[in-house]
Design brief:
Family (chains A, B): Belongs to the thiamine-monophosphate kinase family.
Helix content of chain A: 25-40%
CATH class of the largest domain in chain A: Alpha Beta
Strand order of the largest sheet of chain A: 8-10-7-11-9-12-13
Distance between the termini of chain A: 35 Å
Keywords (chains A, B): ATP-binding, Kinase, Magnesium, Metal-binding, Nucleotide-binding, Thiamine biosynthesis, Transferase
CATH topology of the largest domain in chain A: Phosphoribosyl-aminoimidazole Synthetase, Chain A, domain 2
Shape of chain A: flat
Number of helices of chain A: 11
Number of strands of chain A: 13
Structural class of chain A: alpha+beta
CATH architecture of the largest domain in chain A: Alpha-Beta Complex
GO molecular function (chains A, B): ATP binding; magnesium ion binding; thiamine-phosphate kinase activity
Binding site for substrate (chains A, B): 53, 328
Number of domains of chain A: 2
Largest interface: A-B, 67 and 67 residues
Domain PurM-like N-terminal (chains A, B): 27-137
Strand content of chain A: 15-25%
Largest sheet of chain A: 7 strands, mixed
Oligomer: homodimer
């Protein structure tokens, strides 16, 4: 391929939506941005690697979309309004078909959020996408992991578990193949995998909702490593415990449709990860305002438990449940 | 390896130097930073991949140092004062020896610059280090590629060509092996390579000098892709040409010591890249102030030519030279 790094960047990654406050975008040593004086800048960075965060041969469109989504999800978890982003991409070769589709997926979300790409780099290497995203949040208004209070309600947006189910399907372990056969789903295996994998990557961003939410909640996290793992970060930072009711976990319609075993459903919701939904705590006196927000932003919200003194307790129909499995970790 | 991502980050990448203006560092969904109202934030991101930007088995200390250096070099090229940085690292496995040395190299530069690490992530994958660095620059004071003016002098800090010579040595092509034999250096090949490679990675940052320089220069770039390639960015952005005198190129003492052929020396200086020195233009009436700066920051500075109307012309002892080779590009 004769296309150079400079041509690549120009062709696929130069957008004209420079945006207010961006004094200098792509094309110099650095980008330059201004921050309004009453705001702080929220900064996050996340990497997606082939074979680790996504399967080989994943559609480049989905990949472009999700690489940005996981980053704006971190902004949402602080209540920050997305402002701009940078992209570093390692490619085995300068495949223009790949880049065109990747760029389309990336910009489908960036355009929706009115988010300019202000810089980045491309390099030769095994497929890896590293994005840094920047958001604005009024000083002192960020939702932080350390702010959960005893008796706060614990809430989740959307549903949990579908992305993890897709990953299990994709690995085609003996366990999941046996299960699918038992459920008489083995003939539809591929189409179920494709459906769940695609839906699990095209996750809706919660940015607009989260920005409004930060007025009534001061503690949130996005679920990347699984509900238990991410809730534990909140509990540890806030020095509190929690009670979670498993029957209240928001599950995708597909779990019922495919008739997945109940304990496997719970497992996917609790430990699966990759959901990029918001987990937040809030004084329950705000529940009316929360319902109004959820309605006006069309975001499903469900209460799954309560912040308590002590440790984390999981209950199902009132009975305590012992789940010892470790959350997903990258090593 | 039983060490998890969270433990890794905590053990090797949590520093206490949170720094003024950093409201929230590592440990939440985002970092939060404040920007003084008279400043803009300069943002840059750069990736170093094994086998592309550095040889396999490169010392992790050098790698940690250089991964940060290439980023602060972009800040210096705008005249921005380094403020903080994030780190995304892909590792084949959680090798603690590697991480300890890498972290030591990284912090040797970060500490010198008083630069807090505010966030990042680690993931499994082929060795790749992606850093984003942030700097403060007074509004309107950034040195930009588009600001070169006719009759400006063209200046270089430090020397050019040594990192590129090290890369040539490292590839051990038939060409370089023959050359080293001809120069009777084949017995010392390894020690010469090690010396040049290490020196070419432990490049001194130009941040403090650049920050002061921005008062007398308004146009700079750092040399990553080679003098010709990077000068061309300035000329294109500023819509000007230039005359460069090859006999004025600042060459490392090693070139004379090893008695490298003159045209090979020129080639390394012009097209080698990886120098991370500053190339800047300035009205020559400021040369006295420049000399004072260079002296007080102990930074060698050399004038290599002049901005002209027209195209880029290279001269050696007054005679025009035609160098057609393309600059280093990543694809």
């Amino acid at each position: 391929m004769a296309i150079s790094e400079f041509e690549l960047i120009k062709k696929y990654f130069t957008s004209n939506d420079r945006g207010e406050g961006i004094s200098l975008g792509i094309g110099d040593d650095c980008a330059l941005i201004s921050i309004p004086s009453e705001y702080e800048l929220a900064i996050t960075t996340d990497t997606q690697n082939e074979g680790i965060h996504f399967f080989k041969n994943t559609s480049p469109f989905l990949l472009g979309y999700k690489s940005l989504l996981v980053n704006v999800s971190d902004l949402a978890a602080m209540g920050a309004k997305p402002y701009c982003f940078t992209l570093s991409i390692n490619l085995p070769d300068a495949d223009e078909n790949f880049l065109e589709e990747f760029s389309r997926g990336l910009y489908s979300l960036a355009s929706k959020l009115n988010l300019p790409l202000i810089g980045g780099n491309t390099s030769k290497g095994p497929l890896s996408i590293s994005i840094s995203a920047y958001g604005l949040i009024k000083k002192g208004c960020a939702m932080k992991r350390a702010n959960a209070q005893e008796n706060d309600g614990i809430y989740i947006t959307g549903t949990l578990g579908l992305p993890a189910f897709a990953v299990d399907l994709g690995y085609r372990s003996a366990h999941i193949c046996r299960l699918m056969e038992k459920l008489s789903l083995n003939k539809e295996y591929d189409s179920i995998f494709n459906h769940c994998y695609e839906k699990g990557m095209l996750i809706e961003d919660r940015c607009a909702f989260a920005s409004a939410l930060s007025e009534i909640s001061s503690c949130a996290i996005d679920i990347s490593d699984g509900l238990i793992g991410d809730l534990s970060h909140i509990l540890k930072s806030s020095k509190v415990g929690a009670e979670i009711n498993l029957e209240d976990l928001p599950k995708p319609e597909e779990f019922r449709e495919y008739n997945l075993p109940d304990d496997y459903q719970d497992h996917l919701c609790l430990y699966g990860g990759g959901d990029y939904e918001l987990l937040f705590t809030m004084n329950e006196s705000f529940e009316n305002r929360l319902n109004t927000l959820a309605h006006s932003f069309n975001v499903p919200v469900k209460r799954i438990g309560t912040i308590k003194n002590g440790t984390l307790e999981l209950r199902k129909h009132g009975k305590m449940v012992d789940y010892r499995e470790k959350p997903f970790e990258h090593f």
